[in-house]
Specification:
The protein has 320 residues and is of the alpha/beta class. Helix 4 packs parallel to helix 7. The radius of gyration is 20 Å and the shape is globular.
């Protein structure tokens, strides 16, 4: 599939960009995100769709004036100058990436670009050789292990669904609840009204209410993906990392997944790593392109996909 949008494809570039960008819609000097829109073509209500921490004044148009602590305070996820090497191979090379509160960001790039390694750093699976990684209100991710990071509110879904197929859909969600897994609690299997309400609302959100009593193993591939997303949501994460969420889905399931993820935007911050460019166009306001462990480009899909350097990075991979 070509990165270039077809002539008949609606132009989604007017859906808006994160703030702190130039009039060309691309990131300025690697510093970006949810400041006030500077592009006159952006919808007036865009900034209201991105939640900000507290009542801070909007960021100035030129984020290069900000100090590092100011940039860090304005983003729910802050990665700067992250480098990771494996046996001499540079998986990430001075990677800088910012994510705004309530933002949905798509990350694309050819194989080996560093997408998975970046998520491994965020979730504590990989320790970088250098750089900084901060989350929320001043939490240093490099000082936490995987379990602590998960408990702090960063959830990750891998490409292949991982559910308990012999258990019911309801039981899968119940086991995923963010609660102490004591022997007594597990044996009694009692839910308080708040937990039960959470499970019921999650089932409705992922459209699995009618399958609640069925074994997860009988679900379709797409339904298993939705169940696993639901298992993350009941833990009330602040950030969701999703690796190729629509891989292997039918067109109808892909459309439903797009609706689901767009409904989460604002209440959660999301990072989607995806190779399906049609899906990316359907959900992304801002796209980050990784190549050789660095951010190659960032902006709306229409602009990013037309850049010569992006086309060169995808040459032989996305050209038809």
């Amino acid at each position: 599939m070509s990165l270039l949008p077809a002539e008949t494809r609606p132009d989604n570039s007017g859906r808006g960009l994160s703030g702190g960008r130039g009039d060309d819609g691309l990131r300025n000097d690697g510093l970006q995100n949810n400041g006030p829109p500077v592009n006159p073509g952006l919808p007036e209500d865009f900034s209201s769709r991105i939640r900000r921490r507290g009542d801070r004044a909007p960021a100035p148009p030129f984020e290069s004036w900000e100090t590092k602590s100011e940039r860090r305070s304005r983003h729910v996820l802050f990665l700067e100058d992250i480098s990771v090497s494996f046996d001499g191979f540079k998986a990430l090379s001075n990677l800088t990436f910012y994510l705004g509160e309530g933002e949905l960001r798509c990350v694309i790039g050819p194989n080996g670009a560093g997408k998975t390694t970046m998520m491994d750093v965020v979730t504590g699976r990989t320790r970088p050789d250098s750089g900084e990684a901060w989350y929320g209100d001043g939490l240093n991710l490099l000082e936490l292990d995987e379990v602590d990071i998960s408990l702090a509110g960063i959830g990750r879904k891998f490409q292949k669904p991982s559910v308990f197929e012999s258990l019911t859909v309801w039981r899968n969600l119940e086991l995923a609840l963010k609660a102490p897994k004591t022997v007594l609690r597990t044996l009694l299997a009692r839910l308080d009204p708040g937990d039960r309400d959470c499970l019921e609302k999650t089932l409705e959100l992922v459209r699995l209410t009618d399958q609640a009593g069925k074994p997860a193993g009988v679900l379709s591939h797409g339904q298993k993906q939705w169940l696993e997303i639901g298992m993350l949501l009941v833990q009330k994460p602040r950030i969701l990392l999703l690796d190729e969420p629509v891989a292997g889905m039918t067109p109808a399931e892909i459309e439903r997944t797009a609706e689901l993820l767009l409904s989460l935007e604002g209440g959660h911050s999301l990072i989607l790593v995806e190779h399906d460019m049609e899906f990316v166009r359907s959900v992304a306001k801002t796209v980050t392109v990784l190549h050789q462990g660095r951010v190659l480009a960032e902006g709306d899909m229409a602009r990013v996909s037309s850049l010569p350097e992006v086309m060169e990075a995808y040459l032989g991979l996305e050209e038809e």
